Amino acid sequence: MRPPYPPPPERSAELRRRFAEEARSERPDLSTLCLLLGAEADGALDEAGMDTAQMELDRLAGQLPFRPGGPLSWATALQHLLGEREGFRGSPADYQRLESSLLHEVLRRRRGLPILLSVVWLEVARRAGAPVYGVALPGHFVVGFGPQEQQVLADPFDGGRVLSGSDAELLVAGATGAPLHPSMLTPADPLEVILRILNNIRAWAAARPERSDVALWAVELSLLLPSHPARLRYERAQLLVQRGDFVDGAVELEEYAELISAVDEGAAERVRGQARSARAMLN
Fold first, then answer.
1. pTM higher than 0.90, yes or no?
2. pLDDT per residue over 151-163, tens digit each?
């Protein structure tokens, strides 16, 4: 197994308990959730390492000018600090690395996926008092500054480049082939951001069958969120069977079949058949 290596079971259980507690709190903290996720991925990330990451975000926020002005001034200040001085940005190669989805590694390497670089922008800007929020464009996460009528978008993956309206339209068209719709520009809440990060990790692992361990913990963290797609339970069951845990996988398949039987009995029966096949592998 290639690094990063997961934590031992006792540490993992504690991290998951804290992750679920934070996700269900009145105001979930994005950086805390990202670091708990990172510690589940990387057993080398201990409490001191998580504190160090938070302190680095604090340090970066302290480098920003005091309330530089309106939304464009904030976006420009973040671009100068994080993109130019600190060197945060992304490249196509970053999509091939699990570390690109882990906040502590993004802070260390100054490289990551669009959504993790956006988390750095969000957390630094928030600490400095900026009117900032995540914008979950299809296929490419960016950050927004200011109210809707004065909204300024910036692309942390491109070093914080300020986007024109046509830039945003091109990003969406490139990802979906569809036009930009105003609903795509609304703020994303922390739990939406975390679920999207976990979706990225699941996609990374799906292309690497030898890392089904990563796919499994990403699914299991997703299931700890207050709102998640029910089909994740089916995905977890398939992963358990794939990893040789036939009994637990069969139980999960049977429970998922019961869940969907009221709306699609045919699909439920097919899932029950998969459960029977999983149990037969024990013979």
1. yes
2. 999 999 999 999 9
